[in-house]
User: What shape does this take?
Amino acid sequence: MRFFIAMFSHETNTFSTIPTDRRQFEARDLRYGGELLEVYRGTGTCLGGMIDAAGARGVTLVPSLAAAASPAGRVTKDLYEEVKARLVADLRGAGPLDGVLLDLHGAMVPEGLEDGEGDLLRAVRSVVGDALPLAVTLDFHANLTADIVRGATLVHGYKTYPHVDMAERGREATERVVDVVVGRIRPVTAFRQPPLLPPLGNQGTARGPMRRLGDMAAEMERAPRVVSISIFAGFPLADIHDAGLSVYVCTDGDPGLAERLADQLASAAWAARREFVHTALPVPDAVRQALEIDGRPVVLADMADNTGGGAAGDGTELLRELLRVGARAATVACLWDPEAARACCRAGVGATVTLPVGGKVDDRHGAPVEVTGRVRTLSDGRFVHKGPMFRGLEGRLGPTAVLDASDVKIILISNRWQTLDPEMIRFVGIDPLAEKILVVKSTIHYRAAFEPLAHTILEVDAAGLSSSNLGRFTFKNVRRPIFPLDDL
Ligand SMILES: [Zn+2]
Assistant: This one.
């Protein structure tokens, strides 16, 4: 058996002013050909799982490309068209294929389009035809559309947030395509989009409404004719018609069952809608509480400045407050400011510098803060993920500096990356367990690795483009009415 394999992944925050261009992809991943098998083999990613399962099932993989960038604004038309054209050309030249495996996100918004994945799947189908088994893995934050459902034989969405099941979904998708190829299953699907736009803050699957929905789906999946169920919480900050929660059910040749289960899950999600509304602590309250708590480390989750949700990553509100109150043993991890990181590199370890930090991308993440501090360490920004997410994959933060302002340590990075792994603090020589306060720029993902080591976690409502306070945004394109933008 021969399967084509490719990854094209981006989560687009349409409120971001940072265009996602070739440079953003090169900073994360833009590689062509067989190299993708070497880089992703054995990693906790969908590609890793696909490669693993293909090996176990004796499937030959025909690798095309891997393209991913940190979430930000729309993917530029040039980059999107270039990658799509390359993928389509690879498909044409792939020779006889039995299946296609695509690792996509589901919330990619290229310039001039709303639904990147739907468009890509149309292009793929125009080459391989409608009959070839094709599976896509999608992020939990996919904004599922009818075009995606139509284009894919099978959809396998992550079931966890933090996303710790990526490899498992990749394996599952590969095995189900094998099942289709040998005629063991005949997938039929159902798809629902209740008018629900859950903010990110209460989307976590460890507790709350997504936990209950996930448990319901897991129970349903035990039925022999159910192939897979995915509940996508959706990405609310991609302001497109189809943004929001969706339900996908795939059964083996039983359309009635698929429709029935999809209805049950959509109704349950709708009934739980008010539980998705999220509240967090104002910045001064969060810092005061953190200092009062007897124990360490206290994690202050800077939920709204999560680059993983398309925020700038250079938000300053928490940093400003920590400096204002004279906090000690505090680390801000990690603040995206290539200019400040470069200035620290030029000054050298041990030098004292005064420079504006953060707040440079737009006016949605606080103003720059003038910081005087000592350059504590410098690094090329390369580390290996050790937490439950992306385990084994190399992270590249670019030139990285730790600026120490009276024991408020700021980790300045040059490539945007969410603080989801304590290794991002350790690799620059800071012991996260020794700190009183850790500011972590992440909405939910940090929990997988930081919950076990944190004394206390406080969720903070600072400024930023990944805020769970949807009242901070002006939506223009999402279908209306939709909860909680409209009180339904
Ligand atoms: Zn996600």
